[in-house]
Amino acid sequence: MYLTRLSLTNFRAFSRLDLDFPRRIILLYGANAQGKTSILEAVSFLATFSSFHASNERQLLNFNMAEATQMVGRIVAEYQRASKKHTLEVRLILERNGTAASPRFRKEILLDGVKRRVGDVLGHFNAVIFLPQMARIIEGSPSDRRRYVDELLAQIVPHYGKHLSDYAKVLSQRNALLKMLSEQGGDARQLEVWDDMLAKHGAAIMHARIQALDELELVARRVHQQLTHGAEILRLSYQPAYEPLPQPKGQLLLPVETTVDRSSLKADEIQAGLKKALHAAYREDISRGITTLGPHRDDLRFISNQIDLGDFGSRGQSRTVLLAMKLAEVQWMHQKTGEWPVLLLDEIMSELDPQRRDDLLTALDQVEQGLITSTDLDMFEDAFVAKHDTWLVEGGRVLPQTKQ
Predict the structure, then answer these.
(1) DSSP states of 286-328 as a string?
(2) Cα Rg, the chain, nearest whole Å
(3) 373: left (phi over 0), alpha (psi -120 to 50) or beta
(4) Exposure class string for 362-393: b at 16+ Cβ within 10 A, else e
(5) The pTM is what?
(6) CB 356 within 8 A of CB 379
(7) I need a labelling partner for 208 at 20 to 30 A (CA). Which of 69, 112, 297, 299 fits?
(8) What is the pLDDT of residues 328-379, one digit of tens each?
């Protein structure tokens, strides 16, 4: 799969930008704050329909746009998937109403000219992105790691995004009821209808996470060993808030990091167990006014040579693991879909030592299409620069450079 054309209208710093893409690696270079990362952000948005930079999606609209009752930004991509050509358009719409306290923001998604729901289009265009700030996946909070896993799986696992959306809605309703029961009292059996739905969607999410992380670990471990030249062994430790495996009788629950195999579990087994666990936690949930069990409280830890990198890893180890994960995502997506995702690398070379740079450039040979940003082309080998297209990004313009 590869992009053939990208058009941006009133997106970030770009009032208008039209680019035709070759089916290969492209180096986007230029000074900071010229628009390089915004191009990667637009391409990534087509895959996840969320922004890795903006805390509020209204920020994606061009700040120089004239004030109007309706302000619209657009991302339009033409791409080839298998033997078919497609067009994917995202409209970012900010509507001002004089009687409303704040403007209303919404997204519209069109696939091949037909309006579709986000959940129906997720996974049609695939991309893998690496950013320096993604260190928070390893060093940040469990919510950072859940978002990482969810955005990856939503691109590949059918209906995963729909289960996430439905789970969030049910969780909100159950928590509202728990708060009411905590403050006013009442019959706890009212929770049962929400338990059924929460267990159904929660089990689907957990089952997908178990299977995907097992598969991804196999690929990531191999890539990581190559990047560390066999010096380190990587393991992904999925830590669900509800443990679906039965605890052996007489075994004490100790904080010992061990390998757990949940791959044989079926979704209906997880669903039945989660429903029972939710019921058993009624007293605690009502007391706290929140749901204490479920995939919304899961975590993922990155273990290298039996060391939890989130607690004890060095900056260099975290960068190497992130790079291994991103290269593994590319291979895993290709295994699952038969298509290579578009690889997006933002200022990655400045984050790597010379050996890691060489390893990365070697790995790029298998990618069908990739966009790499840099402020300095000297970070790349001359032979690599000569082999690939170089585009200067300057003042919101993209200028392909002529090969000498």
Answers:
(1) HHHTS--SSGGG-EEEEEETTEEHHHH--HHHHHHHHHHHHHH
(2) 23
(3) beta
(4) ebbeebbbbbbbbeebebbeeebbeebebbbb
(5) 0.91
(6) no
(7) 112
(8) 999 999 999 999 999 999 988 877 778 777 877 777 877 889 999 999 998 8
